Amino acid sequence: MLGIVTAGIAPGLALLSYFYLKDQYGSEPFSIVFKTFIAGALLVFPIMFIQYVLDAENVLQGRLFEPYLAIGFLEEFFKWFILYYTVFQHVSFDEPYDGIVYGASVSLGFASVENIFYLFANGLEYAIGRALLPVSSHALFGVIMGYYMGKGKFSEGSSHKWLILSLLVPFLLHGSYNYILLTLEDWLVLMIPFMIFLWYLGLKKVKKARKLSDQHFENNLIIEKTFISGK
């Protein structure tokens, strides 16, 4: 049992540590990151129940509805909801890159519990494959969601466009991942290039978020110097 729990949670913690440690302007409070991770973990239970009901009642089933709506949209919406209503307005969310950390945290909390359940049901031999596909894909969906959340919070003008993209883009990517996995017979042929693209996109968003944080702190420094000299 301990081996399954360890194998289930280790990939998520490793990926979260990677994105957490890349925050160059001071790491986020561990307590807030931990709470976000736990919130994501707890999301598994209501989502599993809703998906069970949808399946039992034959609602949103089919080649497109199930991968995109019953799984992709449902999971990404709940993660987005947690991020927006618990972290977006929090004082600790004080630079664009923070969205990456919190987005990865809530997604990896969800992915870790989901992974533990899967390994309990199917065996420890699936641990490596689960780490490479579902866990890492959830992490990257969260990174992309967090990137657009950070853009929304710190961009001038209306944040609505970025907040919509913070849900829309991960939903479409998650749905496409599910579509490849659930509906294609030779799914691995397309999954490999899809995961390469997903990693490329996710790491590109990380790089952009760090540049936005650089600009954010430079602007704050200019404002602070102007204020001091004005006195």
TrEMBL record:
<protein>
    <recommendedName>
        <fullName>Protease PrsW</fullName>
        <ecNumber>3.4.-.-</ecNumber>
    </recommendedName>
</protein>
<dbReference type="Pfam" id="PF13367">
    <property type="entry name" value="PrsW-protease"/>
</dbReference>
<feature type="transmembrane region" description="Helical">
    <location>
        <begin position="33"/>
        <end position="53"/>
    </location>
</feature>
<comment type="similarity">
    <text>Belongs to the protease PrsW family.</text>
</comment>
<comment type="function">
    <text>Involved in the degradation of specific anti-sigma factors.</text>
</comment>
<keyword id="KW-0812">Transmembrane</keyword>
<feature type="transmembrane region" description="Helical">
    <location>
        <begin position="187"/>
        <end position="203"/>
    </location>
</feature>
<feature type="transmembrane region" description="Helical">
    <location>
        <begin position="100"/>
        <end position="121"/>
    </location>
</feature>
<feature type="transmembrane region" description="Helical">
    <location>
        <begin position="68"/>
        <end position="88"/>
    </location>
</feature>
<keyword id="KW-1133">Transmembrane helix</keyword>
<keyword id="KW-1003">Cell membrane</keyword>
<keyword id="KW-0645">Protease</keyword>
<dbReference type="GO" id="GO:0006508">
    <property type="term" value="P:proteolysis"/>
</dbReference>
<feature type="transmembrane region" description="Helical">
    <location>
        <begin position="127"/>
        <end position="150"/>
    </location>
</feature>
<keyword id="KW-0472">Membrane</keyword>
<dbReference type="InterPro" id="IPR026898">
    <property type="entry name" value="PrsW"/>
</dbReference>
<feature type="transmembrane region" description="Helical">
    <location>
        <begin position="6"/>
        <end position="21"/>
    </location>
</feature>
<dbReference type="GO" id="GO:0005886">
    <property type="term" value="C:plasma membrane"/>
</dbReference>
<dbReference type="InterPro" id="IPR023596">
    <property type="entry name" value="Peptidase_PrsW_arch/bac"/>
</dbReference>
<keyword id="KW-0378">Hydrolase</keyword>
<dbReference type="GO" id="GO:0008233">
    <property type="term" value="F:peptidase activity"/>
</dbReference>
